[in-house]
Structure formats: structure tokens, C-alpha cells
Fold:
Amino acid sequence: MLIRGAGLICLLAVVALRVWDPVPIQNMRLRTFDLYQYLQPRVATQLPAVVVDIDEDSLATIGQWPWPRSIIADMMVNLFRKGAVTVGFDVVFAEPDRMSPGIIARDLRGLPADVAERLKGVASNDAVFANVLRQAPIVLGQAAVEYVPPNPSTAPLPKSSVAMVGGDPRPMLFQFQGLVRNIPELESAARGRGNFTLSGESDGVIRRVPAVVRVGDDILPALSVEMLRVATGQQTIAIKRNPYGIESVVVAGVQIPTDENGRIWVHYARPDPRRYVSARSVLDGSVPQDRIQGKLVLIGTSAVGLRDIKATPIADAMPGVEVHQQLIETIMTQANLVRPFNATGIEILIFVVAGIVMIVLVPMLGAWRTLAIGGGIAAAFVGGAWYLYANQGMLIDFAYPAAATLAVFLVLTFLTYAQEEAQRRQIRSAFARYLSPDVVARLAEHPDTLKLGGEMREMTLLFSDVQGFTRISEHFDAVGLTQLINRILTPLTNAILATKGTIDKYMGDAIMAFWNAPLDDPDHARNACRAALEIRRLIKEINETVNAEAKAAGRPALFINVGVGINSGECCVGNVGSDLRFDYSVLGDTVNIASRLEGQTRNYGVGIVVGEDTYARANGLAFLELDLITVKGKTVPIRMYALVGDEALAASTQFQALKRAHDDLLAAYRSQDWDRATAKLNEARTLDPGLDLEHLYDMYAERIAEYRAVPPGADWDGVYIATTKH
Structure:
């Protein structure tokens, strides 16, 4: 039963991991889809699109890029004479042509005045190019970027008409901060404008291309989609949305399936030189007409120096313009790849069923027979996934279900083996357990408690840890380091036991302790706080002694600092472990938070950090609120306090003044009144009665400066999110 329970836990864990879907799991799934395309790429039976390549030969013949727009205009004229349906640019003309006659007349020194005037009267290259744009179905490229371009154009953005079916798609689309546009003279003359930005997956591979993206509130079609719209003479594209996300983009009545974010899976074919013609051959008219007639033409580059090379599932280096070209082929030949919206549920169901089979059969039939059955299930699933890809263009992941099923099998096999080994061993040592004297006395009175189990109690937890212990250990050999640890842990242990605490465990240089178990302690929170204050006092004495010894021995001085975290709340306390070995210990979220609070002593520069429940139970001591924080691994904010002294300090006039200024600082900070927060911060610095709060106030000064520059927003609730445990 225990083995099956462990197998079920493992199965639930792999299900949870798949639902979470971190980047490594996503990459494993995407690499599986890459394998499909690598083993059986699309067969290019038709080549409806061609790339006019600004290749090395063209650059050597015509000159470095960018070329004068008049040359680009000549190339457009030649393409349409050869029968091109439409032309799309995988480049952007973001600045006026510096080779225009008027600009040359302005910038070239030494020109005779009459020559300069004649040049200024000649039409600009941009005007020549714009005139061609007005007469032909040409789509200009735009680049969606993750930043706001410097000196963005203020000209109105010409937009393609977009119809929305099933709801507003904007929340599901990939959003960019800015757009690198063409100069207004060209942009207003073109029939269409399309985004050519290619964003790879986390591993940099281009598998999906956004059919539409969002820039601000504007929706921009991809270059390939816009070319299809212009080529078919349509005024509008449609975006269909369902409850799961974007379903498809419709152009001229043809539905192009997408993923939930509006991306199209590119079904790649093997590289084929017939997809390219040299820009040089287009300009000199030598390109055969059948290479252009009736085709959609993309203008782009394969030249390495122009840095438009991408990684794809079938090639480590493919010109970015060919990705757009292959996408057009995918759409026009209807060789679409799709991943159903319920694919994740199907995959999870498959390995859940396989895992349950393993959980039931491994203890009954043994590992080898079950492995054969599991192998048959895995083979059937892999075969089915391949069939769906090869025949339906459907992308189903077999890698994670197979790995998840294998993980369950290995856990079950290992635990079965471990149980059999354990049954052969009969020697069980009760003295291998570490128990506090109070627990030993309780067990002597009630020996029936020597079994697994626990009870829920209100408790206070304390974690202490020597900060920078690795640095300290560099000054000692093994014997000296052991002696130092004992010199630290012994008085700290005595301080805990003297306040009715129980040592749970030692973790190297750290201590975990708790109050109100096994014996009742109604004042457990205050006692834990008193122990923490005593620990801080003892550490000062230890530092004085250790440094005096170091000085006498000619060794460098050391500074030992101990951080303490305290939290109160309901916990499960009792004998925790297995029937072979267990400890009297405590479990629960309260324990985890106490550990996280200890870690925050480093970030906030204070010695003792306590939770809100401890603060409420130990009123009368000197506390200062630190922050409202969401610690790593938690979603509910925690209000933290620094314990800085006992009742005498709390009642002092100077501390009361400091506390008022400190509380006003936090109130102003959370209301985003940065000027008042700064004033109160400076006031608190002057009132600090030697409590070493400089690091804390420096930290808040940095936050205030950051929030002045980048305000957190009107809906900010003052919660700080910790990204590390320490």
C-alpha cells in the first residue's frame, strides 16, 4: 500500500509539473515537434512564392546595402513586368534615401552652385519609389520591437482592416512596445504593411510566426498574411477567437489555423535553391519569366553580413526571409500544422492511465513484466502521435508522457526493491533518534507514543544561522572549525533551553527550535523572542572573545553574525519519519515561513525578523515593522517586524520617537508619497539609538529612488516580492 501510495504521489507530481509547464518541459515538447519535421519535412510540391535575394553576388555587383531607392523602384518595375502577383519587403526603409539628388546636393561639398540647384530640382529617390508603390500591389515591411524606437514617426499609422470574430483578440496576442516604420512618404503609398519580426522560442529556434501582433492597441498582420490579403484583393482580414484563445486568421475566406496566441506553425520543407533568384538578375532583366510569373515575391537577403540568419527545426542557419517564404508555402498548399487546444489534456490522460497501470501492476507482476506492458503502451502512443503528424499535420507530444510513465515505473521499482531489502534487516536502533530530555521523559511515561503520528498545536518556531559561514570557515582547519561551531552552538542552545524551548535539529551552523511542545508554554512567542535577544547578546560576547584570541595569536579578526527568524502559528508536531527511524519534529507552513524570515535578515540588515503572529503575541517588546513581503514560494503577503530590544527599550522616549518616524515612513512609502517618505526616512536615521538600522534605511532609500523613476502603479498594494529565499 505504501509503495502504491508513493507511486500515486509521483504520478500527481509529474501531472503537476506538466500543468506548470516550465521552460525545460516546453523545450522537450518543442524538440519532439522538431523531430517530426526533421524526420519527415513537408514535401514542396508547389513553389507559390519566391525570394529575390540580396545575395553576396548582388552586393558585389550593385554595391553595399542599402541601395538607392531608385534602384529598388527599377527592380519592382522589372518584377511586375515578369508577372509577379505581389511583392513584400523583409526590410524596412526607416530613413530617407541618403542617395537622393537633393540630399547629395546638400551634403556634397564643392559642388558648383548651378549643379547643386539642378540636383535639388530632381525628384528624390523616395518619390520615385513611392510612385511605383502607388501603382503596384506592394507590401512594405515593419519591425515590431520590444522597445520604443528613438525619434518615432508622428505620422498616422496606416492600418489594415481587421474583423474580430468571437471577441477581442488583443489580450491573447503577443504585445510589442514599439514599431520600426518606413518613412511616411513610402508607407502611405503602399497597398499593405506587414510585420516581419521573427521571435524564436526560448532556445532561439523559429517554429511559429505570429500571424498578427499587438503594438499598443493596434493589431498588425504578419508580412506573409498581409501579402496574401493584398494578392487576393481583400480589404480585411478576420481573427477568430474561442474561449481558449485565438483559433485562426481568415484571409479571402481561407482559415489559417493558429495557436492560442495567434502564431502559425511553420511546416518546413527542405531548403531548395529554386526558392531564390538573385536581385542582380532581376535588375539586369536576365531572370527567367517562369521564375516570377504568377508568384508572390519576397525581397530579402541571405548575405551573412546583413545578419538575418535564423535557426529552424530542419536547418541551423536559414535566411529569415525564407521563413516567411516557407510560411506562405505552408498556407497556400494547406499543409498546416496544428496543435489542438485539448492536446495537453489528451497527453495528461494518456500518461495518467499508463501510470495507474504501473501502480497497480508493478507490486503484483514485478518490474520486468510490467515494463513489457508499459513499453507496449508507450510504443502505441508514439506510433499514434507519429500517425497524426504524418497524416493530419497534428502535433501531439509523446516525449513527456513517456518520460512521466518511466518516472513512475522507476519510483515503484526502487521502492519495491528498498522494501524487500528493509524486510531482510531486523536490527532497529532506538538510540539512533535524537530526542530532547522533555521528549524522553514523556516517552518514559507514555511508551505508546513511540510511533508515527502528531498533533496540531499553536507553536513558535525559531531558525538561527551564522551568516557568511563559508567565509569564516576559510580561516580554520577542520578541527578548529568544529571547535568554533561548538563554541557558538553551545551557548545558543542553552539560551533556547533556558526559555523552555526544544531543539529540533542542528543543520551545520544553524539551529531549528520550537516552543509550546512537548510541554505547554502559554507564553511561547515571548519566550522565543527573549531567546533571540539573548542569542544576539551572546554573539557579541563570543565575538569579543574570539577576536581577543585572534589578536593574541596574530590572526585576522573575525566578525560572527547570526540571523534569527521567528514565526508563530499552527503546526503539526510529533514523531515524523518512518517506522524504522523517526524524530520528534514539527511540520507546517509556519515552519517554512520562519525559515524564510531568517533569510530576510540579510536583505534588511537586522538581526531578528519575526512574523505578524509572533509580534501580536509578544507585545511590549521593542519591534519595528520592516515590510509587507511575499516570500519565495508563497503567494500571501507576510508582514515582517524587526525585534530590536526588550521592554525597557520599548518604553524609552527615544525609541518611541524613532518608532513614530519609522511608522510614518512606511505609511508614506505605501501611499507613494515619496517626498514625505524621504523626509521621514532622514528623520528616522537621526533618531536611531544605535540599533544599526543604516542598511535598512539605505535599502528603502534605494527603493524610493527606483519608484520615483518608475512608479509602481496606482494599484500597487505596497507588497514587495522576494525573488530568493535569502
